[in-house]
């Protein structure tokens, strides 16, 4: 008996979002490894190590635009990478329908809120705000 081959399925038109999500996971994973190990090296190995990490350390680090962008890039990539992974879990363990849409909507909303808040914190962080009472300022701020 000879097997009858299935005819080729027609190609779908449009963007293959699953493929691009898969590619994003691989690229962002590699970039995140570099960013995270760079972050850990600077915070834990350079200088006095973990003992030096305090409000002043973060304030000094975020005074440099390089470290602001480093941390924001790490934040964005990690949140989107994690959300894409969670989206895959939702797809795998729920049936298409209302529950899946609600879960994906909640995931999207939480990622957007965290990205916006995290980015605002990094770029608007001011350890020594002008006009603050001297007794509320950290010791490294000029009164």
Automatic annotation (TrEMBL):
Pfam families: Sdh_cyt (PF01127). Keywords: Heme, Iron, Membrane, Metal-binding, Transmembrane, Transmembrane helix. One of its GO terms (cellular component) is membrane. This is Succinate dehydrogenase. It is found in: Membrane. The chain crosses the membrane at residues 21-46, 66-84, 105-125. It comes from Agromyces agglutinans. CDD domains: SQR_TypeA_SdhD_like. GO terms for molecular function: metal ion binding. Signal peptide: none annotated. InterPro entries: SQR/QFR_C/D, SuccDH_FuR_B_TM-su.
